[in-house]
Amino acid sequence: MKLYYALKKEFLILWRNKSALLSLFLMPAIFILIMSLAQKDIYKEYTNANITYTIVNQDKGQKSLQFIDALKDYEHLTFIEKDSLEEAQALTREGDTMFTLRIAKAFSAHFDKKSENPLIDIYMSPSTKAPVKLYFQSKIKETMMALKMKKILKSIGKYDDTKQDAKDKKTIETHYLYDNTHKTVIPTATQQNVPAWIVFSMFFVIIPISTLFITERDDGTLDRLKAMNSPKGIFLLSKIIPYMVINQLQLYSMILVGLFLVPLLGGDKLTMDIDFFALFVISLAISFAAIGFALFLSTLMKSIEQASIVGALSAVIMGAVGGIMIPKLVMPPLMQDLTLLSPMSWGLEGMLDVFVRNLDVSAVLYEASVLVVFGILMLTISTYNFKRR
Question: What is the model's pTM?
Fold first, then answer.
């Protein structure tokens, strides 16, 4: 019964604070619209790459000719053939082509056997972005695998996968004519921004939670609850549950923005071929971490003004470091490592596992566990600070 009345009080206060509620929903929706439309062409460069490259076939055998013929089937891949590797590399280095693909002399002889050396070398243009490299490399691997599968199907009775050498060298080796080593799965602008601003909006509850906590502390509400011997567990649940509900409403309202409003204005539509249970798990973990951090800040702040400034500033810093405002894929390696310091980064990775990589709940359990541990740590410190005060 005590929990019922505590929750009723929190929901009533939330409902009366309509300006705070509006900001929690309107702010991320605006950011999703602006960023999805502004970044649309940037992400399209990565996801719909038209690639021109050079092939140097030093093998001339049957397998290499079949391989080159198979490459003609890709709509976005256009190649020219050269006899000289030096000439082909010069074209790539100068930016006339994005890649030079060298087919080694041993390609046909070692196509389905152990090879000490790479059968294909890929040389990159200095102007080629890493995501485009990943796309190109995946198509080359896909073509080789298709040719191998054809041979296996023709001689299925003779094939024995137990004879494959686990220490076999890589079939394809990539060489950088210009250092660019970032590896990632490339989302569309909408797939990046909807999860990113969902995470940010969930953490933005820092401001209403902290301001409400300080108001209740200053007007004596918390003292009256203590005098009534209200259990601390009920007090914490009365803060956690309402904002978890708010966070879930934020989640699905932002999904609706990505599904309907963004494409209406010319942006990419959010794809929803996702595991909803995985989405539910990671969203609850993000919400728990955000509320825990908000309560932690609440016990440290001395005034509403201080809570508003520090709360907003901490949310912005965590968002900037965590890949919300600047996508992780364009960060240098050092900054990518620093994103691990932000709980928003863990939440965003879990969201991208769901929305971009289309993975199931097992894939988000690690990120969710980190967020839950973070939330428990924040609540533990909050309880200690609350008792001390």
Answer: 0.63
